[in-house]
Amino acid sequence: MNIAVLLKQVPDLAEDLEIADSGDALDPEYVTYVLNEFDDYALEEALQLKEATGGSVTAISLGTEDAEDALYTAVAKGADAAVKVGDFEEEPLDTHTAARILASVLRDRGFDLILTGVQAIDDLDGWTAPLVATYLGIPHVSVVTHIAPSDGGVKVDQEYAGGLMAEFEVSFPAVLGVQAARAVPRYAPVSKVRQAMQTTEIEEIGAEPEGSSGITVRRLYAPEAAGHAEMLEGAPEAVAERLASILRERGLVAG
Amino acid sequence: MSQDIFALIEHRAGQISDPSFELLGMARPLAGASGGEVVALVLGRDVDAITAQMGAADRVIEITGASVENFTPTGYVAALRPLVEERAPALVLLPNSAVGMDVAGGLSAATGLPLVGYATDVRMEDGRPVVTSQIYAGKLNAEAVMDRTPGLVTVVAGAAPADAGRAEGSPRVERLEAPAADARVRFLRLVMPEAADVDITKEEILVAVGRGIGDGDDIEVVEELAEALGGAVACSRPVVDAGWLPKARQVGKSGLKVKPKLYIAVGISGAPEHLEGMRDAELIVAINSDPKAPIFSVAHYGVTEDLFDVVPALTEQVESA
Prior knowledge:
The complex is a heterodimer of chains A (about 260) and B (about 325). Chain A has six helices and 13 strands. By secondary structure, chain A is α/β, with parallel strands linked by helices. Chain B is an alpha/beta fold and about 325 residues long. Chain B has two domains: about 170 residues, 3-Layer(aba) Sandwich (Rossmann fold), CATH 3.40.50.620; about 120 residues, Rossmann fold, CATH 3.40.50. In chain B, the strands form three sheets. Chain B has a nine-stranded mixed β-sheet. In chain B, helix 3 crosses helix 4 and helix 5 runs parallel beside helix 8. Chain B is elongated. At the A-B interface, helix 4, strand 7, strand 8, strand 9 and strand 12 of A face helix 3, helix 4, strand 7, strand 8 and strand 9 of B. Strand 12 of chain A pairs antiparallel with strand 9 of chain B.
């Protein structure tokens, strides 16, 4: 199976999100990026499928900040090739524009399966899997929690609320939006990543953004919480005592 | 072109999802403002029983045929694309679910129509849709305007009351035929969730653990608290993805919805998908070291002390009662 995995960097939520003065975007000065965790699941699934059935895994990312780190890490984890598309360090792209570019790169490369994370935290205008697939004219299934090889394609599970699932059979070529991998994403030791940096030639392809998402963000703002918890301050033991007495008052604990 | 508000009804195994009713409720004031009708879109084979519950709509458009007997992304997009393009309503509301993501994403790319996801509110302003959405795991809201209609909007579950979309009534029904099946994606079967050792939806007390626990082995401190309280352990999605707890313990959009008397959230940040599953609990206590964690917006009591200090201390307090 020849598999492409689409990787994207997203703002790191462990850091505070600062809004730019314009009010309609994050302040680029303060954003740090991490790999979209769902893309990591997609990569893990791709590597598992390759280990089971043979073939190759190609990691592909738009040339945004830290994209090369993600690509080298993918190679260190077992990807056979890495592709960086365009230079978008300055301007994050909306999902439609990114998908158009990725589709143009993927077209005619003959991948059987294209995997990517089901969603990313900045996917305001939609999701990579259905957009890329449709621009390519091939089918897509999102929220995939299980992938198994099948004749001329794969069998997949699509997950719904409450743990309910549907099983589909999907012919190659297709795009899947991965919700969960069959195993926790493997770890690539720093030494292996360094090795990948030395020995891997990332294929670089030029690209210019075309078209738009069809939406304009007017503003980003912190939500006003409808309410807020009463915060219990103090040393842990004191806090625990206070909580226990609250629970007792409510009849949730004997005493 | 019309001012109608289309709402895609998600149903399977004879059950209509609650978010589908939420969409109908949400559509009503939009249609009132635009002067159009609320139109429920029902796809399937034998859909009379579904249509019979569409009393809150002015009109139902049924698209029936073998290709949409069960949901497939290809089947639904092929059936809906010509309809949306021809009728050009003001808005197409879809649930922000697997179905909504595949259908809205597929339609947007196929038609060039704009799409906004994660919506909590939609309104029309000078004939253009303005959408408020939750992004960055609920940490920020985005207000976006769509450059044309129809606008495709996927709405998060719980954004509107489902009861507003349930009504008696017999809307007019228009019946269309679905196109031929697309052989590239074939529905095989629905799989019910595995029976679990514990049904967390029936428990009165839940102690839920999130990514903040750090390591699967440390879940023990949470288990001890749950035991002391006579409750059960639940968790957020990342804990299941990491393989630390089974799926049956997952609370949230892709897990279970719970309404216990007591919900103690330990190391859970409170992403919208999780809040969706537990915000109706009677008493919510959240323990998270990040004072800005969204969980504190739904919790009644909050603690930012280290969970590894607080949780065992609380267990001791409860046991000594």
